[in-house]
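*** Fold description ***
***
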Amino acid sequence: MENNVGTASGTLRVSAGVVMKIAETAAAETEGVAISSAGKLAVISGAPLTAKLVSPVRVRMNGDSTAIEIEVITEIAYKAYEVAKNIQEHVKSAVQNMTGITVSKVNVRIVAVKGK
C-alpha cells in the first residue's frame, strides 16, 4: 500500500514499508525502550517454546493520513506511561517530517518490561 503526497513538482509516493521503518527507528531511539542486540525493536510472540520474532510496527494508510500501531518492551527503570507518550511524539514527528504524510494516531502497546 502506498500513500500519495502532492508536492509543487508533482506527486510523491511513500510505501507503508518506508513509514514502518521510520516509525521503528524513531521508537527504538526513544529513551526507555528496550531494543534487541541488533539495535532494533523486537517483540516475542507465541508460546514460550515456539517463540519467534515478529515486526512490532503496523501501518494503516487511509488516503492522505496514516495510523501507526507499535508494540514495545520498556526498560524497568522507566515509567511506562512516559515512555509510551514519548514514543507517540517521536514517531508522529519523524514520519510527518520525513514523508509529509499526516499521522492521525500512534497507538503504543507495552507488551513487557525488561529488567536488568
